[in-house]
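hey
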């Protein structure tokens, strides 16, 4: 989007005031001879009416929503890159985002066909989607020629006719975007450069103004006009935006215009959104930046006529009329007017529409295979048995196959619960610099707690902290030495032999090389633990809060109070070396951190006698023989670490020993299953978790497709293939529906963000993902760029989504939410929730409800869909 500017002395053709109500205030433009306090010369343009600071700030705040927040690598969070468009129907949102970001609307047709050929999409589901697109079976069966129907023609377009030629897309940045991206990289650097950018305390916009005059790229890009602007533009970004908008030759929609500027660098803009909306103040105070700074830099280039035109969105293909005629051996003359019109209607279906049909077919293929099995399970009643042990795991799709493997080992009962275990906490690591938010980004921490020495291990904890500080100082010293102009060669010569030895060890004996780090982790786990007492001046977790968090585990999952002798709360994390996206493999409910700390804290609460007394007063009386433990499941190796096992009573030692043996066998079985999906040997997964050259330590959440809310009996006998988020729920224990409301408006929303990140990263891996890992570079310690610079990448790398042969491992499809609860309860909940009405009504998430008493299934009707009965829940044939 090139910003139209006017030549010196030219008059504006119209005032932008026509675009706003007269009641909105305007500030008169500054006379040409009056100078801003920090400007050195007068403005080089005479401007018209100007927006006030409040108006500009409001517009910038709205424009900032164009991009999703982008968390730094240390706490990578899955977000929907199209979150700004969730108010629109899904198809319309994808189309609007395609125009704004220059992205594809769907997976290329050739890849959809490969998925179809690999049996990831059923032919019957594809035909059903085609029939629906044509308006029903009557229209689909309409003849085009003898033996050729409209359905035949559309199926030929889907499966046989070659797609239209696609022009080669240039994925690099233009010189204008590259200039701003370069300065963003320098400004936001987090201790990786030898010399930090001067003037960072002034803010992004003012720092770049101070340095741009010395940048040859700026001089080449803007010429003499740019040099003059550096001396004349306001130093306040809001004033600079106001003056820039007033200087436009052609009136524009200011919000749309600013949104387009923000969308030109969605990565850096997303990082700024994280800083302003989600970051802790101590993380960003010394380097202030807002979206107004970024927009003001774009305005600066625009006023210098240096903003390039946006590249067009990818083409949707061409008319297939001639190809269809040739495919069926027809000639145009042989068709009468009516049949020719039918042929033309099919021929005009472009690649985007065909891709949408494939995605619909993929969604129906999955639902049609899953729903009958769930309904059969819903008709079966299994009497509850007291298990030997119970485990509560995260709802993460990677937990489901591990749960199934463990249940096959003995009389174990498993539950699915959000991986932060309902604790809205931020943890301050022992001797650490910054706190870690261990809760979903939808929430704000209520408690700042600290990691403290385990009683009796204080000296060991201090030794660990001293070692960590020494390692940090050594690392900082070496980092400074290897890039210093006077020390680089000396540092290389002095440390070269050691570095070479370490590289050889990490390459050829990674398991051995990782043992030292594993030993340190174990020492830390034994010596330190999260404590409910508040950090510094923060209040800790009160007894009432402890009772509430402990009770919520039972209320939200439907777990009965007659628990097993041993209950293990199991968080999860992952192992990856030399992987910028390692945090993306950890627990999303813990803001990209492992969930072991949350599990340890809640287990300690549930073992507290005062907490149990408070729970008993609320009707949750636990057996005195029940003991709670915490654990952490490593999703890369499938190993399970039991925390605080040395504190378990002697009466439960045998229970723990039996469970530990079962966990080890389950880990081996699940590792073998995962190895097959990775085309590797099971043992290789252990090596890949610690190998510095591994680009795919695990598939992560690739393949995610469903969010199932119900008891474990509903899914226990079904192989869900690691594609479903499982949240335990018992509708009978949720009389007022509050537990279901919490599940659908919090954990399900997080699952929808994950689903959308995987979906769009697969559809267009260059625009919505991060491309090939091989050419990744970490910039500023905060994000990844392709090559040696450019915009921050906003999504997942190609290796997390595609197999080495180019076939998508993740099938891009929308999340299917399946709820086991009475119809009326779900309908009432959705109709009173804005977020659920939007997600289900606009088609971002598909909802099917299974009635627990009849096992009938109904699908939620999207807004605008035909519904003869006037009900939102429609019967589905499953």
């Amino acid at each position: 989007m090139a910003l139209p500017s006017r030549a010196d002395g030219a008059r504006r053709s119209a005032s932008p005031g026509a675009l706003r109500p007269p009641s909105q205030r305007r500030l008169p433009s500054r006379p040409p001879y009056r100078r801003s306090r920090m400007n050195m010369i007068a403005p080089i343009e005479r401007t018209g009416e100007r927006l006030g600071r409040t108006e500009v700030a409001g517009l910038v705040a709205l424009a900032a929503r164009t991009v999703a927040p982008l968390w730094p690598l240390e706490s990578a969070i899955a977000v929907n890159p199209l979150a700004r468009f969730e108010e629109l129907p899904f198809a319309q949102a994808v189309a609007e985002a395609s125009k704004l970001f220059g992205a594809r609307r769907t997976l290329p047709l050739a890849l959809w066909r490969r998925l179809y050929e690999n049996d990831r999409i059923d032919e019957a589901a594809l035909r059903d989607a085609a029939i629906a697109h044509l308006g029903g079976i009557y229209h689909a069966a309409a003849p085009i020629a003898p033996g050729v129907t409209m359905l035949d023609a559309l199926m030929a377009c889907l499966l046989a006719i070659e797609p239209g030629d696609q022009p080669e897309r240039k994925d690099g940045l233009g010189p204008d975007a590259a200039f701003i991206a370069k300065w963003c990289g320098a400004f936001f650097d987090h201790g990786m450069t030898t010399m930090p950018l001067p003037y960072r305390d002034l803010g992004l916009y003012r720092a770049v103004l101070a340095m741009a005059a010395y940048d040859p790229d700026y001089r080449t890009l803007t010429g003499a006009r740019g040099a003059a602007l550096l001396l004349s533009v306001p130093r306040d970004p809001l004033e600079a935006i106001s003056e820039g908008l007033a200087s436009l030759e052609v009136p524009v929609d200011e919000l749309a215009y600013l949104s387009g500027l923000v969308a030109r660098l969605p990565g850096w803009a997303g990082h700024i959104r994280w800083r302003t909306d989600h970051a802790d103040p101590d993380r960003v105070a010394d380097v202030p930046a807002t979206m107004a700074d970024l927009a003001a830099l774009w305005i600066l280039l625009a006023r210098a006529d240096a903003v390039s035109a946006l590249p067009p969105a990818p083409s949707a293909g061409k008319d297939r009329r001639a190809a269809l005629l040739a495919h069926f051996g027809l000639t145009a003359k042989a068709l009468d007017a009516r049949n020719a019109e039918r042929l033309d209607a099919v021929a005009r279906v472009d690649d985007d529409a065909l891709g949408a049909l494939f995605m619909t077919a993929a969604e129906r293929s999955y639902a049609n295979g899953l729903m009958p099995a769930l309904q059969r399970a819903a008709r079966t009643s299994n009497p509850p048995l007291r298990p030997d042990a119970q485990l509560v795991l995260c709802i993460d799709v990677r937990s489901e196959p591990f749960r199934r493997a463990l249940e096959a080992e003995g009389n174990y009962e498993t539950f699915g619960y959000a991986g932060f275990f309902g604790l809205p906490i931020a943890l301050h690591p022992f001797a650490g610099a910054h706190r870690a938010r261990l809760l979903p980004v939808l929430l704000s921490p209520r408690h700042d707690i600290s990691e403290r020495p385990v009683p009796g291990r204080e000296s060991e904890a201090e030794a660990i902290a001293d070692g960590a500080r020494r390692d940090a100082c050594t690392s900082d010293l070496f980092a400074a030495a290897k890039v210093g102009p006077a020390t680089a060669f000396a540092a290389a010569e002095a440390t070269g032999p050691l570095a070479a030895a370490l590289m050889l060890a990490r390459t050829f004996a990674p398991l051995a090389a990782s043992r030292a780090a594993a030993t340190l982790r174990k020492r830390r786990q034994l010596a330190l633990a999260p404590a409910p007492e508040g950090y510094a001046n923060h209040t800790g977790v009160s007894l009432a809060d402890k009772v509430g968090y402990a009770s919520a585990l039972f209320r939200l999952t439907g777990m009965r109070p007659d628990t097993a002798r041993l209950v293990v709360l199991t968080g999860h994390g992952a192992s990856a070396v030399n992987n910028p996206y390692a945090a993306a493999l950890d627990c999303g409910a813990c803001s990209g951190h492992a969930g072991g700390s949350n599990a340890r804290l809640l287990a300690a609460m549930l073992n507290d006698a005062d907490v149990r007394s408070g729970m008993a007063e609320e009707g949750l009386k636990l057996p005195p023989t029940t003991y709670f433990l915490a654990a952490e499941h490593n999703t890369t190796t499938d190993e399970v670490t039991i925390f605080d096992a040395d504190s378990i009573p002697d009466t439960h030692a045998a229970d723990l020993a039996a469970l530990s043996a079962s966990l080890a066998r389950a880990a081996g079985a699940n590792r073998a299953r995962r190895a097959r999906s990775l085309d590797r040997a099971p043992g290789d997964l252990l090596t890949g978790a610690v190998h510095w050259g591994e680009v795919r330590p695990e598939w992560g959440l690739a393949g995610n497709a469903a969010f199932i809310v119900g008891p474990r009996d509903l899914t226990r006998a079904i192989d869900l293939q690691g594609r479903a988020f499982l949240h335990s729920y018992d509708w009978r224990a949720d009389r007022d529906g509050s537990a279901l409301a919490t599940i659908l408006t919090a954990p399900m929303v997080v699952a929808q963000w994950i689903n959308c990140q995987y979906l769009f990263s697969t559809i267009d891996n260059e625009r919505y993902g991060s491309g090939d890992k091989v050419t990744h570079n970490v910039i500023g310690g905060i994000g990844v760029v392709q090559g040696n610079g450019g915009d921050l990448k906003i999504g997942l790398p190609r290796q997390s989504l595609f197999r080495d042969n180019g076939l998508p491992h993740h099938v891009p499809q929308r999340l299917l939410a399946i709820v086991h609860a009475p119809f009326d309860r779900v309908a009432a909940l959705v109709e009173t929730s804005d977020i659920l009405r939007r997600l289900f009504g606009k088609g971002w998430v598909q909802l099917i409800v299974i009635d627990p008493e009849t096992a009938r299934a109904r699908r939620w009707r999207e807004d605008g869909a035909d519904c003869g009965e006037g009900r939102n829940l429609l019967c589905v044939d499953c």
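The chain has a mean pLDDT of 88. The radius of gyration is 30 Å.
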